[in-house]
Amino acid sequence: MTDLITPITMPKFGLAMTEGKIAGWNIAPGAHVDAGQEIADIETTKITNGYESPAAGTLRRQIAEEGETLPVGALLGILAEPAVSDAEIDAFIAKFQADFSSDSATTTQAEHADPFMVNVGDLTLRVQEAGQGAETPLLFIHGFGGDLSNWMLNQTTLSATRRTIAFDLPGHGGSSKNVGEGKPATFAVTAAALLDKLDISKAHVVGHSLGGAIALELAKAFPQKVASLSLIAPAGLGRDINMAFIDGFITADRRKTLEPVLNYLVHDKTLISRKMIEDIIRFKRLDGAVLGLQNIAAACFPNGQQADDLRPVLVSFDGPAQIIWGADDEILSPNSAKDLPATIKVTLLPQTGHMPQLEKAADVNAAITAFID
């Protein structure tokens, strides 16, 4: 009856994901599971994400223990109906584990897409690409304090029919820490130069938070390069900004002080993973990282307000544009999306904070796919 047994394996949430940690099981052994039901929480480098069951059945075994870190593809549990005997399940597990040798794990890890470095002027940018095809490429631009892994739950899905590019802004991630003037317009010039370097004449642009303001500046200065705009909780449409987040992100240097700051990012506070906190603390210890963030904050949010009013750019953009915003955003108010022309589609996601692309990835991916298709 092995055809009646469904293995639950460590999912691959993002291009660079090679392993995950079982943060917790949501279903007890012996309970019935529906297809698509969240059965466990998986902690990754960026966020704790619910793992949806690949099929319906009874959870007969939990192989992986809570707190255990395993490679992508490793066996986590077993779904099977009561008619399947324990002996058959034991035999299935033994064969799976034998087939999934250390070589299999190494192969799985080797399949992930490694970021690469691109020289743009006097800057070096860390870039991650995925997908190919004749469709217009898609460029992701992350926000303040983020990096290309902010798109880990989006890039794989959206690269199904087209080339996609995510990169670390100057001062972030693995890119050069020189931020120049630190303004959205400055970063827009860098983004345009990156497109030229990658031989991309025009792209759909997806920008989050400060990345939304950069996307607008890109459309303003280089309209021929922007096929469409998908702005996720964008800066530049209002003056208000939660400076407790900006200042706290810059100054917090321990888990105890950084975790409450990062909680501003999401509606469900349990999604902030310990690994995410540790990675940010490690990044801020790099030479020039904190200084770069300070310069960006001074340029973009002087006197505790957003410096740039880019609403006229959005209104006058000669192309399709949409806005996706979390209704419970604690950093930038979704009220900034009010009173825009009816031609600009606004999607408000309930029970969602400042990072819908991670907190409601499926909804964001569906909205962007429908929009650019």
From TrEMBL:
Pfam families: Abhydrolase_1, Biotin_lipoyl. This is Acetoin dehydrogenase. Transmembrane segments: none annotated. GO terms for cellular component: membrane. It comes from Acetobacter okinawensis. It comes from the Bacteria. Residues 5-80 form the Lipoyl-binding domain. InterPro entries: AB_hydrolase_1, AB_hydrolase_fold, AB_hydrolase_sf, Biotin_lipoyl, Single_hybrid_motif.
